[in-house]
Amino acid sequence: MEERRRRLLEDLNDAIKGELRVDRAAVVAYSTDASLYEIEPLAVAFPRETRDVEILAAYSADNNIPLIARGAGSGLAGGAIGSGIVIDFSRHMNQVVSIGEDRVRVQPGVVREKLNEQLRERGRYFAPDPSNTRITTVGGMLGVDGAGSHAVRVGSARDHVETIECVLSGGQRLELGRELLAGRDSSTDATSLNRDSAVMLSESSLSDSLRLSAMTATTRRALLLQKLAQILRENAQLIHELQPPLLRNSCGYRLRGILQDSQIDVRRMLVGSEGTLGLFTEATLFTTPLPRNRSAAILMFSSLEGAIQAMQLILPLEPSGCDLLDRRLLSLGRGADQRFRDIILPDAEAGLIIEFSGFSEREVLQRLDDMQRLLNDRRIEFQLTRQASNYDDVEFLWALPGKVVSLLASLKGNSRPLPFVEDVAVPPERLAEFLPVAQRVFQRHEVTATLYAHAASGQLHFRPIMPIPCRGDATAMEAIARDLYRKVRDFGGTISGEHGDGLSRTAFIRTQYGALYRVFQQIKEVFDPQKLMNPEKIISNDPSLTVRYLRHTRPMVDEPSAVQSKPLLPVMQLAWTIEEATDAAVRCNGCGTCRTQVSPQRMCPFVEANGDEEVSPRAKANVVRNSLSTNSLQELLAEAGTSRFLASCFNCKQCQLDCPSEVNIPHLLIEARAQHFQAHGLSKTEKLLSRVHTYARMASRVSFITNRLLNNSLFRRIFQRILGISAQRRLPRFTQTLFLESQRVLRNQNSGAPGSNKPTVVYFVDYFANHHDPELGEAFVRVLEHNGYRVFIPQSQTVCGMAMFSNGDLTGARTLAEQNIRALIEPAREGYSIVCTEPTAALCLTQEYPMLVQNDDAGIVAQQTTDAGSFLADLHRRGLLKRDFSPLPMRIAWHTPCHVKALQKGTPMLELLALIPELTVLMIEKGCSGMAGTFGIAAANFSKSVEIGAGLINEMQTIDAVAGVTDCSSCRMQMEQAATIPTIHPIKLLALSYGLMPRLSERLKSRPNGLVMS
Ligand SMILES: Cc1cc2nc3c(=O)[nH]c(=O)nc-3n(C[C@H](O)[C@H](O)[C@H](O)COP(=O)(O)OP(=O)(O)OC[C@H]3O[C@@H](n4cnc5c(N)ncnc54)[C@H](O)[C@@H]3O)c2cc1C
Ligand code: SF4
Ligand code: SF4
After folding, report:
1. For the chain, percent of residues with pLDDT exceeding 90
2. How far, in Å, is the centroid of ligand 1 from the Cα of 521?
3. Beta bridge mates, 764
4. pLDDT tens across 833-876, in order?
5. How would you classify residue 492: left for phi > 0, otherwise alpha for psi between -120 and 50, otherwise beta?
6. Are the C-beta atoms of residues 989 and 886 closer than 8 Å to each other?
7. Residue from 661, 662, 669 to probe ligand 2 pocket by mutation (most atoms less than 8 Å from CB)
């Protein structure tokens, strides 16, 4: 394998303009998609242009290496994985090439939502609407013939394509649409007909022995059309009889209606071919005017049967959408958003979202009324909880299914709703009859299944709730599929409505289509005689394909033979077992939500910066899961390419917040880093930065020199060369007297120590306030005292250790954690709150210490710890916070740090700032600051850090405010990086407004200067 990979690199790396990756982190990241499967590819290619794809396809044919096209890898059937070269079109080939009046030319990797953002400005859109529009690529949609809730009105991807530029196995590039057959004349309308395809072949050019890559595109096109026409003509009867005329069907190849007298509609056949016939490198799509007059309503039912009955009555009214959601999905919707809570009844067993379109608002509202009247007349019990007729409100109602489908993965317990029979479709008029039959199949196998249906088009998304299967242990899965698919066939339905066949359904196509399968094989033979285009998808002889490539989901602890030939299982560095760590990683279902760059959520800053799959949280979960479950962690860590992977996480925890499955990616990555640290230690810069508190005391002693040197560019350049600290980063000045060595702490006025009968809090100071901003410590103590508290500041506390923890130096972090726990445990046991002005410290004490130190004390300290904002906001909510604030007539710019979000207590500091009269808070909503503790200080990370923080940095340069405000010292550094105004901690504004520290008004006037902060 390694030899083949080396050769591939040698042969292809310089030949293509894009890149080729063969390192472990890359191949493992691309070995899964949103399906249950896993196949490690030989390599991953990132083409930059069609020529690259031609080169790859010619090389593949000459060397017998499979090619697997991939978009966002959000397919649920395992279509985008395979053992050859995976071609990721989403990285570089993701542009909108040109936009015309009613057409658009795109590259395959463009994300549907990004395309529609551009089209919307012109009042148009690409209409097929999969629910994961922010993730799915157009190439992937064409690959599976994607569709969505409005399929009944707008159709599927297939209905919106004019031509496809396709690279065939062998490397020929063809533009394929509706093709005129040679020797035929067409009198029909042929606006988008490819006339130059009508070339007759001589006998010699038909020679089968000709090497594929040696053929010209013209020969290939002619040969292709001639053979296709012959196959379709000879099997016309079979196709008519065996391919059902369903609204939704992406099972096998679309052959029905492809041959029309003198034309052959190749584009419609290519759509849904799952990369098995050719690689799409561009496409011309039809665009559609944005819908104007629509009405929508949500109906709640006290039984699933009631909803099904209602649906049956509604379908003849020709709604443009009618989705059915079961009880589980509705309750997820209630939990997801307060606005959904208002419209989903708590005891509803099922719900319908109905949409009507028409020529006027009056008409569409009338159609809703007609529907209600009909249901009432038939005595159907329902409750209409919301109706809408303007664009935004209708879109809001349709956001519900998208939201809950991805949230399905968050259901608690060992079993999960699994996608393997998630795509059946039956004729809509038989839906009500089919649903009880399907339910009986699940009952027979003793499973329950969640149900989401695009009822108007007969599409049913079942997800049986079962333990995640693994290789060699999945008989139930196969049996359920077999039984359900038999019923689907009896009802004239299809097993793949819009997700394609992939690995999960290919083994069943033969049974579904009978004799037509042979025709599919012939079609494959014409396009791809060497079977190199996405092998094993649609065409396969493997009867066990559905379960053969299931993901590795359990560590190899009980397989002695495997363990003997492998290195010893790694000793876990965090406080979890290898099984628990693997389980945490297995929670990632690959949905791809964390790939999104158009999300309103914050998600992963690394993805937001460049969208690369290998830095996505999904890749991180998969790489760690694969390494643990195949016991190959050491191999991974030994590879050079792994360092980029390890460096692509700085423990901001945003992925965990926004991931529907709540996968604990940060701890998985820290475990991997800790393993790496065990083997290789930290770099010089990492070591320096994570232990800066040990040098900072000395720097403070001579702060008059240190601070001058910090602002000297020559010194900083030398400093960068020797120690790797960025010469461009504005750094904080050192204080002369550390807060923990100040009179405030030493004179023991802070003796609200255990035993005191006054309300007391314990102040955990952490690094920044101690070494750079003692004024913050003082301000906080005064604010607390002003509110009647004594403040106990244990002198033996040290820094929280988050920098060491995030870098994987768990030995060092554990030593600090133990010291702090010793300093804090006594008051914690007494029930005192431990309050941190640094949100990162609060996070470290509450979430990281219990993963570092395995004793009850760590848990007790964690339980008592909170951040300053939450503590004071809680006082305020209980009416215990003094309100004697004087006005601060000024505008300030607020940034919410990632670690405040990670504490999951809202933005309490904003609540407190709102109490200050005349203070105007301008919100900066630009995502992560990119500083992440010490990450942005290292020269190696500086450019990535400012790339991630660019939005925030730019805003701080232009915003009309006297100061930036944030409670995170690290974010503060980034906010001041290029700004001319200072950034201060909100506690200081509270102290100023209380009149406790008038000198703080001077802080608002101090400016960042040169290479040092304000
Ligand atoms: C939460 C969730 C919700 C979903 N909702 C829907 C939905 O509402 N409707 C729906 O239809 N699907 C849905 N899906 C399934 C999936 O997202 C879609 O099938 C989607 O269109 C796949 O797009 P992708 O870019 O991720 O493609 P991939 O998964 O990367 O690829 C899908 C298939 O297309 C092929 N392909 C990709 N690019 C090319 C190319 N350039 N040339 C040739 N073949 C190519 C691949 O080989 C593969 O067979 C959902 C999935 C998830 C996880
Ligand atoms: S990490 Fe979460 S959001 Fe990302 S793919 Fe996995 S489950 Fe989906
Ligand atoms: S913790 Fe932050 S940086 Fe790490 S993967 Fe999650 S979102 Fe990305």
Report:
1. 81
2. 23
3. 836
4. 999 999 999 999 999 999 999 999 999 999 999 999 999 999 99
5. left
6. no
7. 661
